Every structure is written in C-alpha cells, then in structure tokens.
Amino acid sequence: MRIAFTIRRNCERCARVVSRIVELIPEDWQKLYDKECAKFLEVRGTDLEAIVADIIIAVGGDGTALRATQMAKGPVLGINMGGLGFLTEVEIGDVEKSIYKLIKGEYKIEKNMKLKVKINGLEVLDCTNEAVIHTSKIAKIRKFNIYAGENFLDSGSADGIIVSTPIGSTSYNYSAGGPIIHPSLNVMVLTYLAPFRSRVRPMVIPAEQTIRIRLAGSGQESIVILDGQAEYPVNENDEIEITASENKAEFITFRDSFYDKIREKLIKHVVN
C-alpha cells in the first residue's frame, strides 16, 4: 500500500496530524510526503504533481483536498482542520477511528465528475468543484453570451457566472443560491452571480453538452478561476468552453450515502 500526505500551506498543526497518522499505519506501507508537509517533518519531500498513491491524505480544508485532486493521482481522504469542509471526510476528533477503518479497508471510493475547461480553444486545468468567470474589478458588471451545445441560451449581465459539478454544487454554487445536485447525476449547474435581471435562475444542463461563454462588449476584463486555485485572465471576445472531463475526482468516504454528508455538513452546521 502506498499512502501519500499533503497539508495546507504553512500549517505546522496539520503536519503534527500527519505525524500521528504515520504512527498508526502499518510500517510496511510506503509513505510519500508533499514538500509542504516534508519541511515540518524533516523527511524527504515529493512534488505534489509527481505523487501517485493508493491513498492520499489531505490535511487542511476543502482547498487542500481540491489541490490534491488537481495535482496528484489517487483517491483523496480529507481531514478537516478548520471551517465547514464539505469535501473533507474526517473531523479532527475522529482521526484515529477513521485511520483504523482505513487500515482495515472499511471505506468506499467515490468517483465524481470533473470539468474540462478551455479558453479560446486551449485546454487548462480540470476542476472538481467549479469554474467561475468573474469580473476582475469590483462593482463592474459584465455581459456574457451563453450557449449550451450549439444552442444560444442567454445574453445576461452579471458580476460573474459559476459552472459547477454535482459535488461542487454544495460550494460556491450553493452560496450563490444554486441547487444541490446529487453526485450520481451527470449534469452541470450554471448560476449567475448578482445578475442584472432579478428573475434569472440557475440552470441544470446535461454534462454531454458543452457550455460556451463569450465575453461581450468592450472593456470586459475578467478572470477564470478554477476551484479557487488557478486563475486565468480573459477579455472581450474571449470564449470559455466547459464540459465534463474524462478524468474523475476520487474521494474516500466512510459514509453510507450522500444525504448523510448533507445532513452532517450543511443542515446541522447551519442549525448549530
């Protein structure tokens, strides 16, 4: 078994969690550490992009887990060290119990849709949660022409547009008023950010179609943000294509259903 560790940047506390996990797992498991983790543990580090493992433990928050799905290869087990952490499976108080389950093989690997993104025909990084096209300046509304496949869908003005996967529907899309989509559904969600027309609502689009978004008008400086990790500048007449990727984001889970996570992470969190 090959197990890899990645942590939130500059998080010594996260590295201490890794150290405790290493004490629990079998000695004959091969261990890999990303360079951020290695500098705290004083072990040999590996570039995250070069990591291929049977299990990747990401200690931090959703951003750490997303970075692992973007760069490394292998199913990710997220350990939450902060806020809501929807993509992180394990809370800090449950680490030991969860690692014992991991050792015994009492877990499932869920495969989730990723998005393939092209800017003016050039492919950039896949993303797991969402692709966001947003104005590069505060309080500057932008005009977008939107196509689904070959069909013209809408010409709308807004601060930005979110295109999310089902698993990403619980993130930025959810905060912007979009629906939660069950991860078994093969769809994308298109949600406006602060649309000029108040009656505009999020749209659910089949994943086999390509969403094309063109920046219309002049002075349309914007940015494309993928999973909150990578940013690409775009301008008037640029076109962003978004469709389902052939790659999948793999997450390790101990839960029996997606509804358990919704209840525990969103409903209880809001009530509390």
Explain briefly what this protein structure is.
The chain has helices at 12-24, 35-41, 62-71, 95-103, 172-175, 258-271; strands spanning 2-7, 30-33, 55-60, 76-80, 90-91, 108-119, 122-123, 130-135, 142-148, 151-158, 160-164, 187-193, 203-206, 211-216, 222-226, 230-234, 239-253. The model has no long low-confidence stretch (mean pLDDT 92). By secondary structure, it is of the alpha+beta class.
What this model shows, in words?
With 272 residues, this protein is α+β, with helices and mostly antiparallel strands. The protein contains six helices and 17 strands. The strands form three sheets. A six-stranded antiparallel sheet has the order 7-6-17-14-9-10, with no helix packed on it. Strands 13-12-11-8-15-16 form a six-stranded antiparallel sheet, with no helix packed on it. Strands 2-1-3-4-5 form a five-stranded parallel sheet, with helices on both faces. The radius of gyration is 20 Å and the shape is elongated.
